[in-house]
Amino acid sequence: MNPFENDEQTYLVLINGEEQYSLWPSSIAVPAGWTVVYGEESRAACEKYVDAHWTDLRPASLRRMMVGDRGEGDAVRTPHPVLGR
């Protein structure tokens, strides 16, 4: 059975430097570049954690780039491709 799709085993929730999340079987070593942020819990509990915490699927570097030098919380306005504004 695939350890990444086994509802009978326990899982961890990992996060990487881009603030992307991953469900990870607790029986497998955590890969380099990833940190445990939740678990060891059921797959359902880990999925619930990810759903509650990973609310912006864009990588952290893209979010920072979009904010740029405008300051925290200011959105970068992208011109409309046809209207140019």
TrEMBL record:
SMART domains: MbtH (SM00923)
Organism: Amycolatopsis rubida
Superkingdom of origin: Bacteria
Family annotation (SUPFAM superfamilies): MbtH-like
Matches recorded under Gene3D superfamilies: Structural Genomics, Unknown Function 30-nov-00 1gh9 Mol_id
Family annotation (Pfam families): MbtH
Protein name from the UniProt record: MbtH family protein
Matches recorded under PANTHER family: ENTEROBACTIN BIOSYNTHESIS PROTEIN YBDZ (PTHR38444:SF1)
Domain (MbtH-like): residue spans on this chain: 2-52
InterPro entries found in the cross-reference section: MbtH-like_dom, MbtH-like_sf, MLP_fam
